[in-house]
């Protein structure tokens, strides 16, 4: 198993295209993916607020990802929360779990909520999913392209061409990553 650990913030679990890609990559052992049940609660609540009919399906998704990704759940971090200070106090649980999980990076779209000067104290860096995925692509293009191909091949309703899938990624604000993948289009 990889020694580099990435903690997923709730915002990378929703929308589904980003979650699906990050979960597939978590199975590659390029890095160790981590999250907590508090993060699960947060992303599920956000989806259910907009799509209440998905509640039962999301429970199954939660169970599946928790079981499928080896040692992903960080536990017993709650005692750290109160001692932490972040611009949004509601994000302290993310940092606490990342500390407890000995994570190197927090993958989040909310970079302003995780200032460098705070994270440096714990040897953690916040990265936007676009930056995180672009680093993975640079590190191991074959493994990343294989994961992208697997995710794309599961899309059946409707299926997506490579170009359509890359557009989906661009809509997820994964602009650099999508641009990098275009060089490997024949592998996707």
Would you mind describing this structure in some detail?
The mean pLDDT is 95. The chain is of the alpha/beta class and 188 residues long. It has 2 domains: 5-133, 5'-nuclease (Rossmann fold, 3-Layer(aba) Sandwich), CATH 3.40.50; 135-182, no CATH class. The chain is globular, with a radius of gyration of 16 Å. The protein has a 4-stranded parallel β-sheet with strand order 2-1-3-4. Helix 1 packs across helix 8 (141-154) and helix 7 (129-139) packs parallel to helix 10 (175-182). It has helices spanning 16-26, 37-50, 55-68, 78-81, 92-100, 116-119, 129-139, 141-154, 162-171, 175-182, and strands spanning 5-8, 32-34, 105-107, 125-127. The chain contains 10 helices and 4 strands, in the order E-H-E-H-H-H-H-E-H-E-H-H-H-H.
Indicate how many domains the architecture comprises. Answer: 2
Within the CATH hierarchy, at the fold level, what is the topology of the largest domain? Answer: Rossmann fold
Task: Tell me the name of the CATH class of the largest domain.
Answer: Alpha Beta
Rg value: 16 Å
Structural class: alpha/beta
Q: Give the spatial strand order of the biggest sheet.
A: 2-1-3-4
β content, as a range?
A: 5-15%
Q: Any idea what the shape is?
A: globular
Distance between termini?
Answer: 25 Å
Q: List how many beta strands DSSP finds.
A: 4
Fourth-level CATH superfamily of the largest domain: 5'-nuclease
CATH architecture of the largest domain: 3-Layer(aba) Sandwich
Helix content: 40-55%
What is the average per-residue confidence, as pLDDT, rounded to a whole number?
95
Number of helices: 10
- Unreliable runs: none
Element-level helix/strand string: EHEHHHHEHEHHHH
């Amino acid at each position: 198993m990889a020694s580099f650990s990435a903690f997923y913030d709730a915002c990378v679990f929703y929308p589904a295209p980003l979650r699906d890609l990050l979960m597939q990559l978590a199975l590659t052992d390029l890095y160790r993916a981590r999250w907590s049940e508090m993060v699960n609660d947060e992303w599920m609540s956000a989806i259910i607020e907009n799509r209440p009919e998905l509640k039962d399906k999301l429970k199954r998704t939660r169970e599946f990802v928790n079981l499928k990704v080896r040692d992903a759940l960080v536990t017993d971090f709650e005692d750290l929360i109160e001692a932490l200070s972040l611009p949004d106090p509601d994000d302290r649980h993310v940092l606490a779990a990342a500390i407890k999980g000995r994570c190197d990076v927090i993958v989040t779209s909310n970079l302003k909520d995780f200032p460098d000067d705070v994270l440096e104290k714990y040897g953690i860096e916040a990265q936007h999913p676009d930056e995180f995925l672009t680093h993975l692509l640079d590190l191991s293009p074959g493994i990343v392209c294989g994961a992208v191909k697997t995710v794309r091949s599961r899309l059946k309703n409707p299926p997506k061409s490579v170009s359509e899938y890359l557009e989906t990624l661009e809509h997820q604000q994964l602009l650099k990553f999508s641009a990098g993948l275009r060089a490997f289009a024949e592998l996707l």
